[in-house]
Amino acid sequence: MFVCKECGYKSQQRLGQCPYCGKWGTFIEEKISSRAAESRESVKISSLKPEEFFRIHSRIAEFDQLLGGGIVKGSVILIAGNPGIGKSTLLLQLVPEREKVLYVTGEESPSQVAQRARRIKAGEHFYLLSSRKLENAENEIERISPSIVIIDSVQSVVADASGGFSVSPAALRAVTSRITELAKTKNISFILSGHVTKEGVLQGPKIIEHIVDVVLYFEESPSKKHRILYSTKNRFGNTQEFVLFTISAAGLNVVDDPSKFFLSSFANVPGSVAVSAFQGSSPFIGEIQSLINRTSFQFPRRQVIGLDLNRVYLASAIIERIFGFKLYLFDIYLNVAGGIRITEPAADLAIAFSILSSYKKAPIDRRCAFAAEIGLGGELRGVSDLAGRVRKAEKLGFEKFFTATAGEKVKSKMKIFYCRNLKDCFDAVW
């Protein structure tokens, strides 16, 4: 059978283009063995009781919050990132002190792992196995019965059932499927590290991300001064949380208040605007920056980092319609400082005023924060949990908060401007 390594589509003959995902040259040959179907009976869903997940706490509380409260027993967690970004260091720092942990490394020798563990003071109470064979890891699991198994990395481990070839799509799928089976049958939590390609996606077939329970990406900021861990899939929690780290010789250090960290270098220049957004369950104050230059191309550029490009297009069109500014003659560049992603509609007002500030070459008071969605007619719409956003801004020393008239009214020491539309807000700011 020939299988597409991107989407898993199967065909009895090799195809140049996958008819399901449209990718070219993605079909690889795979041997299919016939197995007798297990006898199973359906059950009435009303007879099933909701299951309460038992969670294990790691040594990093913020990592537990990212997962939704801790590492769920019997779950499979995948952490993907570029080479040298600090995945192995993160795995060592996660090891709980009161749990029996098996650390399987297929890329480093035991002395290398031990040296790093001593350097970052990660503790030496866990079991260490240096092997590229999944069967060896299974034997150790049977012998010591750990509650957590860490595999660094999933691309370096091979299984006899896959023919002994690592990195190939068929081998990666076989290894991941076997690990998931072990996790569910033995109620053991697995934490896997994974390599990414030059495009920034996980190496191997996309089906790996469908098999595991949690997918986390570990990235570095454009300035390379800190690392960001965020979730793209979580069966036991939301996918809007993130953890910010700084890196040093002693390992990874959690930044307790990312808002304060990013705003410490807030520049009072045209185009810099503070936005009050939500990342998961907590409010976050970020900085949106914009740069507008007269275009030298036939079609003006729109380059956006950390924001939804379509919402930037809408904000630009609304500004042109309401104020008559000829933005179609200018290149527009927008960026969220620090490499954070903000995708919620509440960032619309901050995006618009970042563009307006850069276009007018007039800086906005750095003590102002914005949070509102903009409709196509320029009207402002309310946002969720305005009270939490206002409290966060007030705690960080902001004095003015601009939002929509619609929605809840909040009492605060700050001066809150409730505006009906973009024009009213413009008059209040300038």
Strand count: 23
CATH superfamily of the largest domain: P-loop containing nucleotide triphosphate hydrolases
Strand percentage = 25-35%
End-to-end Cα distance = 66 Å
**Whole-number count of domains:** 3
What is the CATH topology of the largest domain?
Answer: Rossmann fold
CATH class label of the largest domain:
Alpha Beta
**Tally of helical runs:** 11
The neighbouring-strand order within the major sheet is: 8-7-9-10-6-11-12-13-14
Query: Ranges with pLDDT <50 over ≥5 residues?
Result: none
The secondary-structure class comes to alpha/beta
| CATH architecture name of the largest domain | 3-Layer(aba) Sandwich
Whole-angstrom Rg: 25 Å
Principal-axis shape: globular
Describe the structure.
This protein has 430 residues and is an alpha/beta fold. The chain is 26% helix and 27% strand. The chain has helices at 61-67, 87-94, 110-119, 134-144, 169-186, 207-211, 258-263, 309-323, 348-360, 386-395, 422-429; strands at 2-4, 10-11, 27-29, 55-56, 71-72, 76-81, 101-105, 127-130, 148-152, 189-195, 214-220, 226-234, 242-248, 251-254, 273-279, 282-294, 302-305, 330-336, 368-370, 373-374, 380-381, 400-404, 415-419. Strands 8-7-9-10-6-11-12-13-14 form a nine-stranded mixed β-sheet, sandwiched between helices. Strands 17-18-16-15-19-22-23 form a seven-stranded mixed β-sheet. The protein is globular and about 70 Å long. The N and C termini lie far apart (66 Å).
Helix-strand layout with pairing:
Layout (H helix, E strand, L loop, with lengths): L1 E3 L5 E2 L15 E3 L25 E2 L4 H7 L3 E2 L3 E6 L5 H8 L6 E5 L4 H10 L7 E4 L3 H11 L3 E5 L16 H18 L2 E7 L11 H5 L2 E7 L5 E9 L7 E7 L2 E4 L3 H6 L9 E7 L2 E13 L7 E4 L3 H15 L6 E7 L11 H13 L7 E3 L2 E2 L5 E2 L4 H10 L4 E5 L10 E5 L2 H8 L1
Helix pairs in contact: 8-9
